[in-house]
User: Fold these one by one.
Assistant:
Number 1:
Amino acid sequence: MFKSLFTSLSLLLIFLFQPFQQIIAQVSYPSVYENGVVTSAEKHASEAGLKILREGGNAIDAAVAVQFALAVTLPRAGNIGGGGFMVLHTADGEINTLDFREKAPSRATRDMYLDEDGEYISEMSKIGGLASGVPGTVDGMVTALERYGTLALEIVLEPAIQLAEKGYQLSHSQARSLNSAANRLREFEGSRQVFIKPDGTEWQAGDLFVQKDLADTLRRIASMGRRGFYSGVTARMIVDEMQRTGGIISLRDLRDYKSVWRDPVKANFKEFELYMMPPPSSGGVVIKQVLAMLDELEIDQFKFNSADYIHRMAEALRRSFADRNYWLGDPDFAGIPMERLTSEEYLFQRISNFDPEQATPSIDVSQGEFHAFQESDQTTHFNVADRFGNVVAVNTTLNGSFGSFVTVSGAGFLLNNEMDDFSAKPGEPNMFGLIGAEANAIEPGKRMLSSMSPTIALKNGEPFFAGGGAGGPRIITATLQNFLNAALFGMNANQAITAPRIHHQWLPDKLYVERLYFSSDTLQKLEGFGHDVDQIGNIALTHFILFEPENRMQGAADSRGDGHVAGY
Ligand code: GLY
């Protein structure tokens, strides 16, 4: 303990008294793996993926194992009651993306969160049964495994089943996370049974956390596949819970849920090709737009995190988020002008009014109609790469921490509050100040817009980067910066993930920077350009893999959280 205290103090002193370029040079070189690596937000989950890789599974087998393990060991975000996105690159060079985002139930209506005076009742889309979309995770995992996996579902589910059945010892942060949500979780009987200690006391680090009902649900999935979740006993339990907690997901909604393979958004940037999630994720479109604008602004001519570098990044982000919030939604419902939004001609024109010495006020960038939607930072991301050359990046979430706080009684898993990612009412910014529009209004069967940004970048056709993160809209900017840190500045995985981050999302018109790590010269220069600089704590939690030549892999887990790299 004294050793780690001493290390932390030394690092703090180094950070306080040295320019960042020197600090970055001192960050340790990451371990390099030759056979496979998993980076996720939780140790047991990364180890579950590693076990599958060691037993001969490929990256897709291991990714499915990690997703199910996270449902057991990271209940606030890992899930079977939520949804997400997967981007994958196969050993033979195929790239594909899977959308297993939740859908609005068939009885959802546009104004379902408004009272009779048309006022938005914010809590209704966040807490309780009505906040949940139809979960997509189980269908997504089964679908991915069927198409690209090599092992049986029973095998990849076994680590998760064991973790739920036998339990695991809570870490400090796992105990803290459960305790911090206890008051809300207590409101729902199903959650009280699972997440509140029988004697009502707080969880402590080292407590054994056992989830027998969840183990049984996972066994039903292992033996019956999607039918073990979307019909039969589990589906009945979900619908019963809906009735107890005011929700509207029906047996038919569950039966009809289908994840969707979608063509990736592809961006070329210098010698890299990036493959990203298309709508209903906004990550791919924003990153593609920003990279094109940064290239036009010759971003590689500027020093890392200098005021001029950050100014260019912020101005590109500002313009892109304005488009994101107005144009993007579920492509199966909204007509999204993808070609125009991502064409070079449009993006060069979009950034043509950039002033190197003056921030552009957000109000001058776009004046689209304003509708509101909400996103949260309680998402999670993981990556797996194997020795064959398969690479998988998965962003998955319940939306808010512990989702709707509703646990399906007898089935032991939490349901999402993803309905809150829709535009619930015009003109109301969300908890992150994001402004949405018509394209993201609630409709039955529609998927809500997301910021989750699983990304795989290739260099000369070979994997270079696989990453994503947690943090609502900050996922997009953090993933972009992780990639640029490695691609433009040659940082290794530890350096790239440690580097201080900035964020801009058009509205509110603020330039967020991580507190402590930017010099007062830099901040003053940015303010001089007219940026409203706001120094905040951590910007996003990310995990990624960087590839060296010959498929040697560096794993990075964010020191801003409890991530874990497992490799061999
Ligand atoms: N629920 C957060 C997101 O999908 O971006």
Number 2:
Amino acid sequence: MTLKKNKVKPYSNSKSSLEINSKDKKIKKVILSYSGGLDTSVIAHWLIQKYDCEVICYSADVGQGSDLSSLDKRAKAAGAKKLIIEDLKEIFAKDYIIPAMQMHALYENQYALSTSLTRPLIASRLVQLAISEKADAIAHGCTGKGNDQVRFEVTINALAPELKVLAPVREWELKTREEEVEYAKKYKIPIDVDKKKIYSLDKSLWGISVESGNLEDPNNEPLQNTYITVKELENTPNKSEYIELTFKNGIPIKINDKKYKLVDLIIELNKIAGKHGIGRVDMVENRLIGIKSREIYETPAANVLIKAHRDLESLVLDREFLHYKDILSGKFAELVYYGLWFSSLKEAILAFNETTQKYVEGIVRLKFYKGNVVIVGRKSKYSLYQNDLATYSKGDIFDQKLSKGFIELWGLPYKVAGKVRK
Ligand code: ARG
């Protein structure tokens, strides 16, 4: 079966393939999720042309580490009325990263959701802004092939179903990067055309997502010198490094003896673990939209914190809770990946998680060496580990004779089945 490509008419033609069509004129004010890159700069201009509307740009600092101050000029040059920049690092760390870390959330057992977690937060801020600015639509620059469009739109629909969502890249006639560059030149929209990007990057405090370029062949090794926060193994120290992480209420508060604010602790841990080559994930992942894609992630702090937190829980929580939590971890990661942050199942899972975090207090000792993070010790005042029960040496208080009766009853159904079916 062959798939027909949708023919899209040029933007100058008022009847394009956009869903809105006859209602186009109703759009008076749009909030645009703005990164300052080529796509969103062109989108700002394009929206004004198409809808004759006012565009307000919004950029969030989620710890991507780039200077957002130059974006204002750019947004205005593209025709936007104003740009609003918000520092969301703290709220991102507290309300999104921490629950995900406590749930040991790794999509397909590997991806720490560094991009996925930012989207519901940004989308919720876009909604707030749309309401306070009395806008009638929110626009984003996601393509029609990825997960991010789903995360943005599901969130917007859940929080403010009355708002329209515009996704120009999915519908417009600019099919290639070159055509977008041409558009930008034609309308004098300032862009960095010279910077040849090897890969597409998305950065946040929780990690970096790397895609496209030669990575599109899953058999290609990433190019040398394209490692960002994680050092290539050849360039890591030949000496191991020990660190201690202190947790209180399931939240990391100290590296060694130094107290950190959450955001700073994550930044610092990204540096230390990254220096040792920890936290690079190279995977083929299943997108929600059905496409398999090859992705590289650099998530040093995420990998270390999830591992350390899980380890401390193994000391302070009972077996059944831990095993049940492991089942929910995968489900929780899926919910985040699928854009279902604002859902009742996610709320319920986090409520379940909350019931025990007050016991997740203590210190985990780790050793970093050549891409490995090894846990070498842990202690807690809530430790359920009882030496006089576990020991094989003097001081043992465990009555081994009791096990005989236990095994007899535990295995009774199978003993009966064994007899009957023999
Ligand atoms: N595949 C990841 C996700 O859906 C990362 C997407 C990264 N986006 C990018 N522009 N590189 O969460």
